[in-house]
Amino acid sequence: MMGTLIDLVVYHQNGEQLLKAAYHQLSQYAQRFTVNQPDGELMRINQNAGIAPIAVASDLFHLINVAKAASQDRHNPFNIAIGPLVKLWRIGFRDARLPSAAEISARLALVDPDNIVLNEQERTVFLRQPGMEIDLGAIAKGYFADQVKQALVNAGVDYGFISLGGNVVTIGHSPTNANRAWNVGIQNPLAQRGSIIRALPLNDASMVTSGINERYFDVNGQRYHHLLDAQTGMPIATDIASLTIISKHSVDGEIWSTAGFLSSADDALHYLCQQAFIEAVVVAKDGTVQVTDGLVDHGRYIALR
């Protein structure tokens, strides 16, 4: 679902029923919050750009509100108004292509998050310019994972985990591991899928990884990854291969795993060390692994200090 493999594990006497409910919950979110469903709530907002405000459900309004606030920090590349550029490049789809400079320039005028107008009383969303598009791809899975976790906890689940591709959320600790944690591997972005560069013990926490190896295409020997820079319209120019965020809530991990993708691993580490309630693991293109101040790297495992 949502272009990725989903893995759900719960320890509960009604586990099978709870997993079915979680699947249904995720399916509903995927239908409503994606730009790939013509009748979804998010698509109605985009289709009415420059025309009219659209009233939406409270959960979608809340998520757009959170994402807009994060997007207005111009110090980082997180931007939910980046939809026109995402649609132009189509990276991750079969019809991905290298757009012309003129095409990119035309889209740059449409990616200003300040032109997303939110009315809390009416719970409406309005995109000021025709052609604008909100894309929640950089935050939605984190929100979905948090909501599924809350539903499972409310149902009495004490142990389990939710994995939505590069987004892992744990419930409690593992009842079978000696270290009483879920040991979650960080994909080596410089090796084949399934190769782990470090493992991290998680206890009732979230881990989100973004990397230039996730979605890309090659043209004339040049690789173009899916993390786009709203200032240039091009993939972010960086020496970072992957960025992993550890946080209490997965939605925060989603935001910072994009927001921290700066031009260099050193800049990213310095920036992320200043942020509260998150830790980070930065893997550079040369294979160097760096961690924020609250973590210690033991070579095979990374742990909280």
Order of helices and strands: EHHEHHHEEHEEEEEEEEHHEEEE
Could you give the count of β-strands?
Answer: 16
Portion in strands? 15-25%
What is the makeup of the main sheet? 7 strands, antiparallel
Q: Which structural class do you get from the secondary structure elements? A: alpha+beta
Low-confidence segments = none
The residue fraction in helices comes out at 25-40%
Number of helices: 8
How are the strands of the largest sheet arranged? Answer: 1-5-6-9-12-13-14
Shape: globular
How is this structure best described in words?
With 305 residues, this protein is α+β, with helices and mostly antiparallel strands. Helices cover 29% and strands 25% of the residues. It has eight helices and 16 strands. The chain has helices spanning 15-33, 41-47, 58-71, 83-89, 101-108, 140-154, 250-259, 265-273; strands spanning 6-10, 54-55, 116-119, 124-127, 160-164, 167-171, 182-187, 196-202, 206-211, 216-219, 222-225, 240-247, 278-284, 289-291, 295-297, 302-304. It has a seven-stranded antiparallel β-sheet. It has a three-stranded antiparallel β-sheet with strand order 2-4-3, with helices on one face. A two-stranded antiparallel ribbon has the order 7-8. A hairpin with a 2-residue loop joins strand 5 (160-164) and strand 6 (167-171). Helix 1 packs antiparallel against helix 6 (140-154). The chain is globular and about 55 Å long. The model has no long low-confidence stretch (mean pLDDT 94).
